[in-house]
Amino acid sequence: MDDLTRESFEQYIKEEEPDKRLRSYAWYTGIGLQAVDGLKTSKYLQELAIRNIEGEISLDEAQKLLTSYYKERPESEHSSENQGRTHEADQVSLRITDILSENAFSFTPTEYIAIHRRLFEGIYKHAGQIRDYNISKNEWVLDGKTVIYGSASELRATLEYDITQEDKFSFQGLTMEEAIRHLALFVSRLWQIHVFGEGNTRTTAVFFIKYLRKLGLSATNDIFAENAWYFRNAMVRANYSDIQNGVYETTEYLELFLRNLLYGEHNKLSNRAMHISGALEASSKPDIGTEKPDIGTEKPDIETVVNHAIPGHGKGKYKFSLNT
User: Fold this and answer.
1) pLDDT digits over 26-53, tens only?
2) Is 168 in the same domain as 234?
3) Whole-model pTM?
4) Which end of the chain has less Cβ packing within 10 Å, N or C?
5) Domain limits at 88?
6) How many domains does the chain have?
7) Looking at 41, 73, 102, which one is the last position of a domain?
């Protein structure tokens, strides 16, 4: 996202008019989240976003205009991989905006899968389908190593277990520090399952934002939009250990992200600080940019699925709300 567009969205986020502010947040988040897969939206999509924020067009009208835009362009202009992925970024950004603009939400595995379907229908053949193969991804933050993702044979059961246990969890009596630590564990474990072949981080982010709202927490700022790549790397670090080399799972980076999101703090969110080498933070080079991890399939089946969900502590509601 270029600086001019960033300034435009930030200006709207500070708007006193609630509708404009909320529309701007939804768009800014939808567009910013494309960075987790190294994608960028088109100038045209950003223009549609501004028109929608201003109230000139509805989201339905924006969708029709975007569809026409790609239909009218010569095939040669958007048949390359880069242009095809720009189309994906545009479509998914608009769909994220649509979902974040809705109040409806069910904290269920079915909803999680439905969000993936809504985001990627017509883009991925497997939209809304649980993967039936094992995967690995070469992660920059792990110096090319991979997180151990959920076993294909246990994905649905693991997803249902994690969400069911979280639904039973009570936040009553917890300090904000404890609540943030718990939320960091929950979202990182949900992401680690990696239910789908592609699109897991964007699906998890949207589901998590809707969950935070359900808990009465305000997440209407620019943290996801500006730090989507950091959000993904923080979840990677929360799910990777290499004890022999002194690397351990940690949610500390994800907790910093959530403190900025929910407390309005200004902790430095540095991708370089997360790198397992521990040597990059001292470098004078700028912070690392977006880089899509390499994905592959693994032939050997993963025999054991770690029982990673946090045990529930009875039904309860999140009683406090933070405004940032």
Assistant:
1) 999 999 999 999 999 999 999 999 999 9
2) yes
3) 0.85
4) C
5) 1-102
6) 2
7) 102
